[in-house]
Design brief:
The complex is a heterotetramer, with 2 copies of chain A (320 residues) and 2 copies of chain B (263 residues). Chain A is α/β, with parallel strands linked by helices. Chain A has helices at residues 30-35, 41-44, 85-91, 112-128, 159-172, 188-197, 236-249, 264-272, 290-304, 310-313; strands spanning 10-12, 15-17, 21-23, 68-71, 74-77, 103-107, 137-143, 176-180, 202-205, 209-212, 227-231, 255-258, 277-280. Chain B is globular and about 45 Å long. Classes of the chains: A alpha/beta (320), B alpha/beta (263). Bound molecules: flavin-adenine dinucleotide (2 copies), flavin mononucleotide (FMN) (2 copies) and FE2/S2 (inorganic) cluster (FES) (2 copies).
Chain lengths: 320, 263, 320, 263
């Protein structure tokens, strides 16, 4: 294949991505998009891989409303991992079996066994599933931002709890395994090292920052859950710093960077800080076309700066 | 419940791609602005009760604002916006010729098929979707009566934006129309049997209208509000409790059967 | 005294403040303000107490330029504690001896002895100073965001290092002692408990979030120091959450809350989350009049909401 | 160094309170806008070389932008703004009648006392403060020559905003005036002994002008740029290295003696 412009494909571990952009778990629902589109959204799917909303072993109804609101250059959410549970989730797989892109399944839980149960159920299903009845599931992202049942702290804030979750999941699958780190820590490389040590193949970061918004009228916490997770452009400078730290600490590890990506330049900044792929979260809420716009902008940035490939830009900010 | 045979509110055409729209007209009513946009593709698909996600121009606001369709005809849609916080305030300041991005129509619509008598009950800015609904019902030959409640003189300015033949207004402070809530209007109306109720407004009003509707042995529909992030079913930010559990206002709603919500 | 409106004065431990607003260390230089003012700025000083920029034992030249830039709804700085050292600092005291308001001196260092040395030098000076040659120094704020010489981590990210600094300083003074906590931790109450256990009288929070901004052209870190501290409205939701956590954990402790205060309502939100006093940082850079505007807005908010006093609003958001 | 007897640049009147100013005039030159503001209290105190901190209207930008005084006369000040990033771009879009907040004048000024021959050397938007300086020097009876360098045709559009009698322009791409940098103009000029040099521009230009000035045995002044947060001496964000250590551009500068800076 002869290509004139920069090479956009990247290898996220064993997963070949056409370009570096994926959706951030919980911010993009493929089926809902396809229902509201004038055409075949499966054919036009803009991301290089699909990361669905976190699924847990049992069905969860999530937190009381209100669950979202805007903050200066950001937003806060407390959805509470609402999801139908892995069994109902598996039942839906045929509906999006025609997706061409690889899928990275986001998995949640409150203890290691719950994570492993999700993966085991899915692996069992995939082993038995008829051809064409499931999308191309190539990896897992372990969302360790759920509170730990025993400590109450987020699992990801505790390196040893993180390691336990990863180890349990590593037993349950041979597929690519990402641990998604929480930024609510002193040193994000501690949980990163624990996850990699326990068998994770790569790291995703950042999840949201624990935060609080008050109701202007009552001065009480606005969200039904009192606190929620802050994301969006407001946090980008902190997320970039954390991605750079992880990339520096684990130079050969596949990294999915995220936090406030709104433009192609933002995505390129994460790549420059060492990300292999970049996830787009809150930007999905700004316009239906945000993914394709950001992708086009990223392509233009790479081209205008004369990069031969995405790989060439990777880690730019880390080199002296 | 008498609503058992009510039509479902779902399955209306939803379209999330962005339309870049020119502002064709603006009328101001105190803190409210009725904004007319040229949006042929939205107008063509729209049904009363649906809403659009509107990008606040200028770049200062991350999330889009959900706004009901106040009108839709030909290549135009109308929005009635109340300046409440920073984003809606900026939308009321749109000028003719400005451009604004909207995505829609989104969400479920008010069922109107076979309705012969309709009573539209609105509270505050919740009245907005009822103009479009009234137009549609009238076009389909239904008898339409509307009862709108406002807090005070300032919020009753919105009434000036509406043109509905049989429209009753109440204000809590008695400054315009009947003194009291919209329930006082309902109590004084002679409601034909089989009348369909359509409600939109603050939750306490919806709850009161719900009780009244059931007491009268009527059935109806309600449009609910919720804080939204995506507006298109992706984020699960906009849930409300219903008889069938937590559902998304942007996706399963905003219009629900009156008997399935618990406001 | 008969007062019609709400009571604005608050007690920050033993320090009586006319109202809850103080400046955040490093963002407001009294002498520079007075030089650029048409009148007697000492007489018109708007804050209830003055917190000067952090002073260290030795003079520091700070970080290479650039040191500041803007981010979405925020700013990042890497000044690097530039200051003349405590001795030159003491020499300047007569220049602002006429300030009526109490002063809380922000102290920095890389190990406990350096903090204690600053306080000891100042206490020795004050004990000997002639009347009218120094302002009313009533307390200290220990800025434990400096990197620890031995661990490299911020001192405040390590509860035991924090306790050592506080204990050393507690030996050196009987005045009111605040520990200023860093938000770059998993649980801000851990360092808070350590500081209080070691003798601190109160807590200030938050300092800035470690963050990184890239140069748009080069994709290299923009700041001379590569990373810096993020502050401003972007971080307010996280800061509010942390203040609420500390106020809940230590209900009777004086707390100076800060992070992104731009309006009187923002200040009231910190009070609702349990702050006794509120510090204004980056807002000082938006207009010369920001302090008096925010104070007036806070007064208006209290009045409009029918609070009889600031104390009545305190902790509103914490109660069920 | 020949600068030993140069005047100090400090101790000019600085005033940080906010002036709410009306835009009285705007002229556009490509990506540049010359904006005239009604700002009597700023204008009265101003001296060439000083700057103002300008609030970007609209609320989207936290920090104010430092902008040099391009002009000051009567109750007016002038700014010449180049659209570089988001904030300066918005400033170039100001319209007559808009309001904008400025604080100033701030910083040190170009000493002009006793100067008989002046050579003003500017690069890019660094030329901005030199118009006001030229006006002042001319008013004081000095002979003024200016040499301005621009990158290309687009950036040379700024030259249209200036009115200086003896003004030489160079562009690196040769599209306007002499081809090359401002140093090429300097090389071709016949500079009278004792001429005072005033420079403002990108650091590499300042360094080159500094070398040239010393080689010619002349003395001069330079206005430096630095990223600023407060603009008023509080934050220590804007330091540059000088012979006397790190100093604040907003407070000790922006104007320094050419022999004390290390650009
Ligand atoms: C389905 C639906 C239809 C609506 N139709 C209309 C209409 O026709 N006309 C109209 O004026 N308003 C309507 N609203 C309410 C409108 O969306 C809010 O008034 C608006 O979002 C407030 O934004 P703000 O920036 O002014 O307020 P802020 O309080 O500053 O907004 C902060 C955040 O909260 C959200 N928010 C604030 N208030 C509400 C609210 N009441 N409902 C939902 N989100 C809120 C905002 O969208 C934003 O994300 C509708 C809401 C929904 C859910
Ligand atoms: C003393 C002084 C005088 C100046 N005079 C003028 C003038 O007369 N006309 C003019 O057009 N410009 C002038 N500048 C430069 C002007 O301040 C910047 O171009 C402007 O701040 C860029 O803002 P932005 O939002 O467009 O860029 P962005 O890069 O988006 O701004 C991000 C942040 O960086 C700062 N910044 C970016 N570039 C510069 C820069 N070159 N210098 C200082 N800060 C910068 C901004 O103020 C802002 O805080 C002057 C700068 C200084 C220090
Ligand atoms: C509404 C919403 C829901 C989210 N749900 C999940 C989730 O289910 N699992 C998860 O790992 N992250 C979830 N996240 C976090 C995002 O995946 C992402 O880590 C974070 O939002 C930062 O990226 P952004 O700033 O681009 O949004 C959610 C974020 C939002 C805004
Ligand atoms: C330019 C700058 C300099 C600062 N210097 C100090 C300092 O010397 N000591 C300190 O404790 N905090 C320092 N801070 C942190 C502030 O005091 C404050 O904790 C932080 O900025 C959060 O408040 P804000 O969002 O209102 O700015 C500095 C902040 C800024 C922006
Ligand atoms: S607003 Fe996102 S699902 Fe309804
Ligand atoms: S910009 Fe703050 S000291 Fe100069």
């Amino acid at each position: 294949m002869i290509s004139d412009g920069p090479q956009h494909s990247v290898s996220l571990g064993p997963i070949l991505l056409d370009h570096p952009l994926v959706d951030a778990s919980g911010t993009f629902d493929l089926l809902e998009y396809s229902r509201r589109y004038d055409g075949d959204y499966f054919a036009d799917f803009p991301y290089a891989a699909y990361v669905p909303k976190t699924v847990t072993a049992d069905a969860r109804t999530g937190n009381p409303a209100p669950r979202v609101t805007e903050t200066p250059s950001g937003m806060i959410n407390a959805i509470g991992l609402e999801n139908p549970g892995i069994h109902a989730w598996i039942d839906q797989l045929p509906e999006w079996a025609s997706l061409r892109q690889p899928v990275i399944v986001s998995v949640g839980g409150n203890e290691p066994e719950q994570y492993a149960a999700v993966i085991a159920a899915l692996e069992a299903h995939l082993a038995a599933a008829a051809a064409g009845t499931a999308p191309r599931i190539e990896g897992y992202e372990l969302n360790v931002s759920c509170p730990n049942v025993s400590s109450g702290l987020q699992i990801g804030a505790d390196p040893s709890a993180t390691a336990e979750v990863v180890a349990a999941c590593r037993e349950a699958t041979d597929r690519f395994l990402l641990a998604k780190l929480t930024p609510n820590v002193r040193d994000v490389t501690e949980a990163g090292a624990a996850a990699l040590g326990a068998g994770a193949d790569g790291l995703s970061l950042v999840n949201t920052f624990k935060a609080m918004v008050l109701d202007r009228q009552t001065l009480k916490p606005f969200l039904g859950n009192r606190t929620g997770g802050l994301c969006g452009p407001a946090i980008k400078p902190i997320a970039l710093r954390m991605v750079a730290e992880v990339a520096q600490a684990f130079p050969d590890t596949p990294i999915v960077g995220m936090g406030g990506v709104m433009t192609g330049l933002d995505a390129l900044e994460f790549i420059a800080c060492g990300a292999t792929a970049v996830a787009v979260g809150a930007a999905n809420f700004t316009a239906f076309e945000a993914p394709s716009r950001i992708l086009q902008e990223l392509r233009d940035e790479l081209e205008a700066r004369g990069f031969a490939s995405v790989a060439e830009a990777r880690g730019m900010a880390l080199r002296a | 419940m008498s609503d058992a045979d009510a039509q479902t509110c779902g399955d209306h055409s939803q379209w999330a791609e962005t339309s870049h729209c020119r502002v064709a007209g603006v009328r101001h009513f105190g803190a409210f602005a009725a904004v007319e946009l040229i949006a042929p593709r939205v107008a063509r698909r729209a049904a009363p009760g649906q809403f659009v996600m509107v990008t606040v121009p200028g770049g200062g606001f991350l999330l889009r604002r959900p706004i009901s369709l106040f009108a839709a005809h030909g290549d135009r849609i109308g929005l009635l916006v109340e300046a409440r916080g920073g984003g809606s305030e900026q939308l009321t300041q749109l000028d003719v010729g400005d451009n604004v991005d909207v995505a829609g129509p989104l969400g479920s619509a008010f069922p109107t098929e076979g309705v012969t008598n309709a009573l539209l009950v609105g509270g505050g800015i919740g009245c907005a979707p009822l103009q479009y609904l009234a137009d549609q019902l009238a076009a389909e030959g239904a008898q339409v009566t509307a009862a709108f409640g406002f807090r005070d003189f300032r919020s009753a300015r919105a009434a000036g934006a509406f043109s509905i033949d049989r429209l009753w207004v109440a204000t809590e402070d008695g400054s315009v129309g009947k003194a009291g809530t919209v329930l006082h209007i309902l109590a004084s109306l002679d409601v034909a049997p089989g009348t369909t109720i359509y409600a939109c407004g603050p939750n306490p009003m919806v709850a009161a209208v719900q009780r009244w509707t059931f007491a009268e042995g009527l059935r109806g529909y309600v449009s609910l509000e919720a804080h939204m992030a995506c507006g298109t079913g992706s984020c699960h930010g906009c849930v409300v409790d219903t008889a069938r559990g937590k559902v998304r206002v942007c996706s399963e709603g905003p219009v629900f059967r009156l008997d399935e919500v618990t406001p």
